[in-house]
Amino acid sequence: MKLERYEKIAAGCPDSRVLVIGDLILDQFIWGRVSRISPEAPVPVVEVDRETQYPGGAANVARNLREISPHTAVMGMIGTDPHAHTLKRLLADEGIHIEGIQQDPDYHTIVKTRIIARQQQVVRVDRERKLRPTHAQLERAIAAIEGMLPNLDAVIVEDYGKGLIQQDFANEIAARVRSAGKHLAIDPNPGNPLRWRGASVMKPNRSEAFAAAGRPASEPVDPVEKDEAVREVGRILLEQWACESLLITLGEQGMMLFHAGEEPYHTPTRAKEVFDVSGAGDTAIALFTLALCAGASASEAAEISNHASGVVVGKLGTATLSPAELLRSFSKSEGQ
User: Fold this and answer.
1) Cα separations in angstroms, 197 against 82, 101, 194, 335
2) According to the model, what pLDDT value does residue 318 have?
3) pLDDT at residue 282 above 50?
4) Which domains does the chain have, with CATH numbers?
């Protein structure tokens, strides 16, 4: 994509209005250094320097959107515990609309704690208990979506498989978004196989795509255009999900975009250094959706999404990127 075309699309992104629906998570990071092994067990002793906290899961998709568009809202479930208050505060501080968040005293806010030493993750500790929303909670969520849709350009569903996204809820979301003529982007979870139909884009990663298609995993082929296993999975999922576009993220091989009746479109990775891939998928679906809202074609949206992901994997932690960083990535690419 030419820089001039990217700048035209980017100019429309701040006006895009997007709602993110999904599992909300509080990401905690404990940063330190390792200088010795514990005398109690053969494990490293991490001497803590600092701690940071960020909105994670579907909330991280919202963070990525908010870096570019001020019209970003999030919907999900949290508890009434201290972690829930922290998560709401962090979202509000970033200017993300949180009116769609429901709190339930029986729900335990999901927390993922990563301990990092010398730029390496030592261990991750997850605190979660899956709890399906009640009928009343789903009714409130559906009513809220109905009320917000006239003022939205797109809805993103980010399924981390923690219990919020069930088939009935998925059906209601898809039907209402399609009826309103808005973009619908889905990041599916193979551990929670749902019957999605008619989305603007479905965005699994390679392993998720193979699982969703019911095909055994295979080793990547280089060049990826000759990877018949991926091409077959793409054909299966396009039919299975009846989506307009299918974007499969391929890690160090970039991304492959599938569109009915067209040859798959491959965009190679733009990453120069990879420090942390956590959250890269969140960035990918956020920027793909924003680009669609701003008038990009699916292949142009894939290019923008790929550049954005290439930036965030070069950062540690649950990262986002700024418009200036994305512009710099495109500028460097055109100069090569």
Assistant:
1) 38, 25, 10, 41
2) 65
3) yes
4) 3-335 (3.40.1190.20)
The distance between the two most distant Cα atoms of the chain, rounded to a whole number of Å, is 63
Residues noted as catalytic: 282
For the chain, what percent of residues have pLDDT higher than 70? 95
Q: What is the pLDDT of residues 131-185, one digit of tens each?
A: 889 999 999 999 999 999 999 999 999 999 999 999 999 999 999 999 999 999 9
Between CA 98 and CA 172 the distance in angstroms is: 21
Query: Mean per-residue pLDDT for 289-312?
Result: 94
pTM over 0.85: yes
- Work out the angle at residue 77's Cα, subtended by the Cα atoms of residues 71 and 83, and round it to the nearest 5 degrees: 95
Instruction: Please count the CA atoms within 13 angstroms of the CA of 303 that sit on its side-chain side.
Output: 19
Burial class (CB within 10 angstroms; exposed 0-12, middle 13-18, buried 19+) of 150? exposed
pLDDT value, residue 276:
45
Position of tokens 């201290």?
82
Residues 6+ apart with CB under 8 A from 294: 9, 10, 11, 12, 13, 15, 16
| Ramachandran quadrant class, 238 (left: phi over 0; alpha: psi -120 to 50; beta: rest) | alpha
Q: How far apart are CA 302 and CA 260, in angstroms?
A: 16
What is the residue-averaged pLDDT of the chain? 92
Consecutive H or E run containing 253? none
- In one-letter notation, the amino acid at residue 97 is H
* Beta strands across the sheet bearing 245-249: 97-103, 72-78, 18-22, 154-158, 183-187, 201-202, 245-249, 255-259, 265-267
The letter for the amino acid at 72 is T
Q: What is the DSSP string of 50-91?
A: EEEEEEEEHHHHHHHHHTT-S-EEEEEEE-SSHHHHHHHHHH
- Residue 156's identity, in one-letter code, is I
The phi-psi region of residue 95 (left if phi > 0; otherwise alpha if psi is between -120 and 50; otherwise beta) is: left
> Which two structure tokens, joined as six digits, stand for 276?
């942390």
